[in-house]
Structure formats: structure tokens, C-alpha cells
Specification:
By secondary structure, the chain is α+β, with helices and mostly antiparallel strands. The chain is built from five helices and seven strands. The chain has a seven-stranded mixed beta sheet with strand order 1-2-3-4-5-7-6, with helices on both faces. InterPro entries: Acyl_CoA_acyltransferase, GNAT_dom, N-acetyltransferase.
């Protein structure tokens, strides 16, 4: 049976639709300050997602219901590299797969995030199995939390969300394995 969606690598031809999705305030109800206001923000984001594929052989997919159809959202895993302060090794970088998903409000709740996240995690574990898969989200985003749990990630940490305009916001870190202190520190940057 064919999948009810088509997954493509992102390209600059997707810019207008990505900006439409990532600029929609309904997509950011759980983190309003994350909303993209300028098209340049969406372009920079998209160029980074394109680079994920070129550098690591995997990244977030553009999701459509059919070949050539409108973009429904993005979902997938990309490697995030975070420099860590280490007096013994000043060039130390910690890396992990970051699972992310964001969809148009009209298609949220249809299971796309869960189904595609499962595929992304499996692929990430094939490409670079030494790296943990991490999803971090805000505690009050119950739908995102359900996706993380549904795809087999477990809660590793709960902490105030540093830099969030809402001082009460709590960040949850989910992962496919127990995280080392440096892996956790990288996910909290």
C-alpha cells in the first residue's frame, strides 16, 4: 500500500510555502516568538535544512500529500553540532540528531508527524547510529509531546526554557537513549 504522503528533500523552490507555514501564527501557538516574520528568516532556515542533506545525508523532508502537491510541512532529523566549553579540549563539539516537525494547521492531527518521525528516526539510526536522536519541546505543547512519546522517545530532562520570553516556560528533552551530560548540555543551548 502506498504512503499517504510524498517526502522530498527541501529546495529553494519550496521557500514561499515554507515561509507561509512558518510565518503562520497558528503554527506557533505554543511558542509565538518562534514565528518567522521575514521571508529572509525562512530562506536562511531552508538553506540550513538543504545543507543538512548535503553534509550528513539526511535532514528534514518536505511533506506533500501527492507528487507536486502543496507543501504540508516539514519533518525529519538533522544533525546539530554544538560547541561546548571544555578547558581540556577547547575545540570540543557535541552532536546529536534533532527531530523536528511542523505542519500547516489544516493537516495537524492526521498522524503525519508521528508516521514520518518514525521513518526519520530509523533513517538517522542507520546513517549515524552513534548519535542520539533528541526532540526538545515546550511542556505545554501536549500534541508535540504525544508525538515524541508515540515514536519511542523518552523524557530525559525538564528545565526552564532559557531565553524564552515566557519565564514560566519549561523545556522537555526527549531522546532515544539515555543522554550523557554533554549531550544534554548541547540540547539545552
Amino acid at each position: 500500500m502506498a504512503e499517504p504522503f510524498v517526502l522530498d528533500r527541501p529546495g529553494l523552490e519550496d521557500l514561499d510555502e515554507i515561509f507561509e507555514i512558518y510565518g503562520d501564527p497558528r503554527v506557533w501557538t505554543h511558542f509565538p516568538s518562534g514565528r518567522m516574520i521575514k521571508r529572509e528568516e525562512a530562506e536562511a532556515y531552508l538553506l540550513t535544512r538543504i545543507a543538512d542533506w548535503e553534509i550528513d545525508g539526511l535532514g528534514s523532508w518536505i511533506v506533500r500529500e501527492s507528487e507536486g502537491g502543496p507543501v504540508l510541512g516539514m519533518c525529519g532529523c538533522g544533525v546539530r553540532r554544538m560547541p561546548l566549553v571544555d578547558e581540556w579540549n577547547p575545540d570540543r563539539i557535541e552532536a546529536y540528531w534533532n527531530l523536528g516537525y511542523r505542519f500547516r494547521p489544516e493537516v495537524q492531527g492526521r498522524g503525519y508527524a508521528s508516521e514520518i518521525s518514525r521513518l526519520a528516526i530509523a533513517r538517522a539510526q542507520e546513517v549515524k547510529p552513534e548519535l542520539p536522536v533528541i526532540a526538545y519541546l515546550l511542556e505545554h505543547n501536549e500534541a508535540s509531546r504525544k508525538v515524541a512519546e508515540k515514536v519511542g522517545l523518552s523524557l530525559q530532562y525538564r528545565v526552564p526554557d532559557a531565553g524564552n520570553p515566557d519565564p514560566q516556560a519549561m523545556r522537555l528533552v526527549f531522546a532515544d537513549r539515555t543522554l550523557t551530560g554533554t549531550q544534554l548540555a548541547a540540547a539545552l543551548i
